[in-house]
Amino acid sequence: MRKISGGSAFEAKLGYSRAVVKGPWCFVSGVTGYDYTAMAMPDAAADQARNCFETIVAALTEGGFSLSDVVRVQYTVTDAGLVDEIAPVLAHYLGEIRPAATMVVAGLIKPEMKIEVEVTALKE
């Protein structure tokens, strides 16, 4: 098993890895919209979604995977009204891949967080 860190302070504080690779599987933990280079959270949900996917791509790449290996995705949004704003971003990153997906409306751990995305990838 290989653990991948994204460098987030939340990882050590909350006891998780950004991603875990086990055999042909890569499990990427829920990713929020922080821009980790600036350590800032954009206000727009679409910008947060883009940041989520850039973090996911980096974790997948480090683990030897790509977005095309994603077979499952879960989106958590804080308000169903955000779906229209984030839909173009979701389509941009996963529109051709079309993994099995679930979207949940729920609160996140910080009030500025509007979306969290987690993925599971399989390399055959």
How would you explain this protein's 3D organization?
The chain contains 3 helices and 6 strands; from the N terminus they run E-H-E-E-H-E-H-E-E. The chain has 124 residues and is α+β, with helices and mostly antiparallel strands. Strands 1-2-3-6-4-5 form a 6-stranded mixed beta sheet, with helices on one face. A hairpin with a 2-residue loop joins strand 2 and strand 3.
Number of strands: 6
Largest sheet: 6 strands, mixed
How many separate helices? 3
Share of β-strand residues: 25-35%
Poorly predicted parts: none
Overall pLDDT level? 94
Structural class: alpha+beta
Helical proportion? 25-40%
Explain the layout of strands and helices.
Elements: E1 2-4, H1 9-14, E2 19-22, E3 25-32, H2 45-62, E4 70-77, H3 83-94, E5 100-105, E6 115-122
Parallel strand pairs: 4-5
Antiparallel strand pairs: 1-2, 2-3, 3-6, 4-6
Structure, briefly:
The chain is of the alpha+beta class.
What keywords describe this structure?
124 residues, single chain, 3 helices, 6-stranded mixed β-sheet
